[in-house]
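[Automated response] Your request has been received and processed.

Submitted sequence:
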Amino acid sequence: MPENKSKINPDLLRERLKCDFNIEELAAWWNGGYKKLEEKRLRENFFLSDFELQDDVPVSYMSHKELYEHSVKKSLKMVTKLKELQSKYNDGIDSYMALLGGLLGSGLLKQGNPLSVHYVMFLPTIMGQGTFEQQSKWLTRAWNCSIIGTYAQTELGHGTFIRGLETRADYDPKTKEFVLNSPTLTSYKWWPGGLGHTANYAIVVAQLYTKGKCHGIQPFIVQLRDEETHMPMPGIKIGEIGAKLGMNGVNNGYLGFENVRIPRTNMLMKNAQVLEDGTFVEPSTSVLTYGTMMFVRVVIVRDTASNLAKCSTIATRYSAIRRQSPINPNKPEPQVIDHFTQQLKLFPYIAKTIAFKLSADYIWNMYNNVSAELEKGNLERLPELHALSCCLKAVCTSDASTGVEVLRMACGGHGYLNCSNFPIIYGNTTAACTYEGENTVMLLQTSRFLMKAWEQALKQVKLTPTVAYLADAIKLKKFATWDGTVPSIVEAFRYVAANKIRVAYEHLEARKATGLSHEEASNMTGIELTQAADLHCRAFILSSAWSEIQEAVKNVSPALGKVLIQLMELYAVDSCFNRLGDLLRFIDIKEDDLQNLQKKLEDLLHKIRPNAVGIVDGFDLPDIVLGSALGCYDGNVYDRIFEEAQKSPLNQEPVNKSFHLYLKPFMKSNL
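Generated structure:
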């Protein structure tokens, strides 16, 4: 068995020595400053050094049942340690975010945390939609995990289209109770994390009926299991939905109701209310009920950047170690990273990691600001936040899923191994393309906002910040500022996005003019509407990331600032090549412009090459968080791959029993 050397792989060591910026400075910038970097490392060491949180057996060798039980045990240990960390270091919400959906949590529980929905959705929904009295009753118990909750919205037959949910909650004024029922098989709740065997309470989203009238979907707190025995409550039909492509530790479940009665006060009534006599009191606005989903979408964008950071780190380090395919037949095999084609696979996704992180930070701050405005009754920017969270969730998860696969294939055959960690990261990343809103539907949600914004722009109504560029585009008859610089690319994407929005709007209105309803016309214009939302989002990511980088370079060393600028330039140029058809359609770009763009792409790859390993080192991801034999910090890839192979149950005995049972009789049969 090969020796696992503790020294750094010489190729990887050389890469770090030739890096021309301070990697520690990048790590500090990436994590929000030296103080936050120190807190992050303290938190990581606190959890990662605990032997009880290590996996003795790789999770890929566990049965479905074993994996769930293992995940519950580890998640409870993590929460216990989290409480200890808070009391010891006064660590706050960052610890919860890191453990439940962030890099640290995904490193400790590779297949997901069965308690994540409890913290990310159950608690925030009570905080956001419960009255003061309801919060007083439920929050302390939930925060202390005296009860464990989930969020049951999606059904077997309906997901993103929540108005189509079938679960009923009929109010009975005689007993002052709601009666919950699942009228059809398709009305069974399906997919909520932790629902299978972990949670004993749920926030259930159901159609409210009172006084013979349906008042749309409302949230209800429902007890699912007995608090002592954990047996299902009367009328509750509950279970787990089975194995999935990924996230098999999350314990996704199903839930049906048969005349389940709950008190009237179990309906969350901060917004809408049902009085004792059954009178329905409408909320000031229906969009307030979507607060939890917007919060989760913002979290998803942050997690997407984290997943890309992982994959970029793994693939870049491995590409610096792997040697293959001589460029010069008279010289030794070069590092794979020296091939320009390999650089084109790696470096744009490093750049996207940073761009997505900056966009995630922007929308996180926007979410907090809008939430504060909502508390004061100001709803002006809520539609803008909703539209932006929808398209960012769609574009970032889609690009990240593609990126994981590109980076996996950039690692050749070894990227196919479970020990590379690409299969698990892909399962987790691609899941986000459908949960909390399927991506196409998310883009259509954004397009509805954009159609209204375009109409307002035509009427010269003042627009909210993220769509203010539409008014400028209307004034321009021709885009004339293309020079290939990032500012001109940003303006070009805004101009193209505006024109995609214009075309979709004009076609939508033309179809309505023929007598089609708005819904029918929207369906027929759906392709253009989603494309318009996609371009709007990409223009936003470009502009916000570039703006943030311009501010960042003022506060870092010139050496690091130069690298950050190069990465954002690469992101901008790569975006052009990925959306070249749209650019050529609306902007007069000459052949010389394209040649210059190609030259700039190659020049940026060449400039980034010496710093590539240093950049991914700056993401500051411990080996346990990466969970990859290919991406380990010391670069001893082949030793680690061999060690991982020895962990296979099939390698625990020299001869498997199938030889004596099947192979030997077959081989001796003289067939």
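Summary generated for your ticket: The longest helix spans residues 340-375. The chain has three domains: 29-113, 147-283, 289-642.
If you did not submit this request, please reply to this message.
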